[in-house]
Amino acid sequence: MSIAESCTLPPVRPRRTRGNQFPRKYSGKIPSLFGRVCIEIWGCYKPNIPLAARAGCTERQANLYIEGKTPPSYEALMAVLDELRPRKRA
């Protein structure tokens, strides 16, 4: 066996994923009702990022709101309500 043959990488297999609606971190446990609404509004990949931006909190705190480990703050609730029913601005 030559050096070139011993340095080749094994063939790459395509990654197997299921086409489910929830991302992997949410697939094992069903998030809270607030979390399901956030996933429905902002998509299933990372709903904590737009929630954190609109509510003015950290991504970790937004993730805790979505998972249901802490109750959502007033700002987080208003961010979701503004997406469902935008405010009329003057």
Query: What's the pLDDT, averaged over the residues?
Result: 78
Unreliably modeled segments: none
Please give the CATH architecture. Answer: Orthogonal Bundle
Rg over CA atoms, rounded to whole Å, is 20 Å
Q: Given the structure, what is the number of helices?
A: 6
Assembly annotation = single chain
The string of secondary-structure elements, in order, is: HHHHHH
Tertiary shape: elongated
SSE-based structural type = mainly alpha
Strand share of the residues?
under 5%
Characterize the biggest β-sheet: none
Residue share in helix: 40-55%
- How widely separated are the two ends? 77 Å
Number of strands: 0
CATH class: Mainly Alpha
CATH topology: 434 Repressor (Amino-terminal Domain)
Number of domains: 1
Describe the structure.
This protein is an all-alpha fold and 90 residues long. The protein has six helices and no strands. The protein has a single domain (20-84), classed as 434 Repressor (Amino-terminal Domain), CATH 1.10.260. 18% of the residues are buried.
Please sum up the structure shown:
The chain has 90 residues and is mostly helical. It has helices spanning 3-6, 24-27, 33-42, 48-55, 59-67, 74-84. It is elongated.
